[in-house]
Amino acid sequence: MPQRVTVDVAQVRALVAEQFPRWAGLPVRPVAAGGWDNWTFHLGDRMSARLPSAAEYALAVAKEQRWLPVLAPRLPLPVPSPLAAGRPGAGYPFPWSIHAWLDGEPARADRVADPVRFAVDLAGFLAALRRVDTAGAPRPGKHNWFRGGPVRTYDEPARRALAKLAGQVDVGLVLEIWEAALAAPWDGVESWFHGDVAPGNLLLADGELAAVLDFGTCGAGDPACDLAIAWTLLTADGRRAFRERLAVDEAAWTRGRGWALWPALVTCARAGPEAANARRVLGEILAEYSAGA
Question: How much is the pTM?
């Protein structure tokens, strides 16, 4: 696991005053549920300060600064808009960013007004992202935890977690799903992907998809990693509409299922506070796979 650092309000105030004195008088306060990869703070009413929580996450700062302005005009929904790039200082060791604030509340199943419309809107966003020219785009690597690469990258932790869950899950069925994901071919045609299409990175307004956050894991490669949301958030009807709108073939869907499966297994095996949701996701995966088998 990455070695995380903590950041407090006083430190953010010091960084802003030192590097961006024009904003030094603005109030700073933590964002509720501000995420794991970054410590996020309100800066005044219309900006946010995002400070990576570990060296691995800091690798994404320059990438977002470079590529978000390129991607934004080609996408049908608002995405973060970098306003300034910060540097280490005030005892904080990494580069950091100031972004324009985006209104909305994090997506949650009970907040979505129409699950099918939500799924179609999300698929439309991802379809637009995939159409953006990939020339010069970052490829899978440590900067994005190898999103866009083969799901086999996570074979060892997936199998280790499954061994710990023996007697709690249908090991044979889970292994069948996992090995199908490993074997599913990719044609090698690269496209842009977000890399972390998760509920916390999808903002709602009046129950509808309003913005997409956190492009720290984005890049160009196999976009199947973005399909994991089909099992982590979407309803069964929404999942079908999502797949149809994106025109996902069987091999890509199978790879996407693998991207949803391995973190669910790892989280279940840890048995921490997030295990209950991971078990729900695992149940969605098993039920959907069994229904189609």
Answer: 0.97
